[in-house]
Amino acid sequence: DKKIHIAKKESEVLQYLINNSRKTVSIEELSLNLWAYEETPNASTIRTYIKNLRKILGEEQILNIRGVGYRFNKK
After folding, report:
1. Which domains are present in the chain?
2. 32/34 Cα distance (integer angstroms)
3. What pLDDT does 74 receive?
4. Spatial distance between the Cα atoms of 70 and 60, rounded to a whole number of angstroms
5. Residues paired with 42 in a beta bridge
C-alpha cells in the first residue's frame, strides 16, 4: 500500500527484470535492450540502478548471480 517514486530508467530496469524473471539477465543484455547505442552506460551505472532498486524492494528481490547477471526473485 506504500507508493514509492523511482527514476524512469530504474523503472525500466525493474520491468525488464520482471518480464525476464525466468532467466538471469546480464549487464550487457540490460544495456542492449534499455539504452540506445549512443547512450550505452558503463557497467557501474547499471549496478547503481540495481543497488537502488534493491534498497527499495529489499535485497532478496533482485538476486545477484555472480559472474552472470541478475534475476528477479518471484516469491
Report:
1. 8-72 (1.10.10.10)
2. 6
3. 82
4. 11
5. none
* Residues 29, 21: Cα–Cα separation, whole Å: 13
**Nearest partner of 71 among 35, 53, 34, judged by Cα:** 53
Transcribe the chain into DSSP letters: -------HHHHHHHHHHHHTTTS-B-HHHHHHHHS-GGGPPPHHHHHHHHHHHHHHH-GGGEEEETTTEEEE---
Q: Which three cell numbers stand for residue 60?
A: 532478496
Per-residue confidence of the chain (75 residues) as pLDDT tens digits?
678 889 999 999 999 999 999 999 999 999 999 999 889 899 999 999 999 999 999 999 999 999 999 999 986
Position 72, amino acid: F
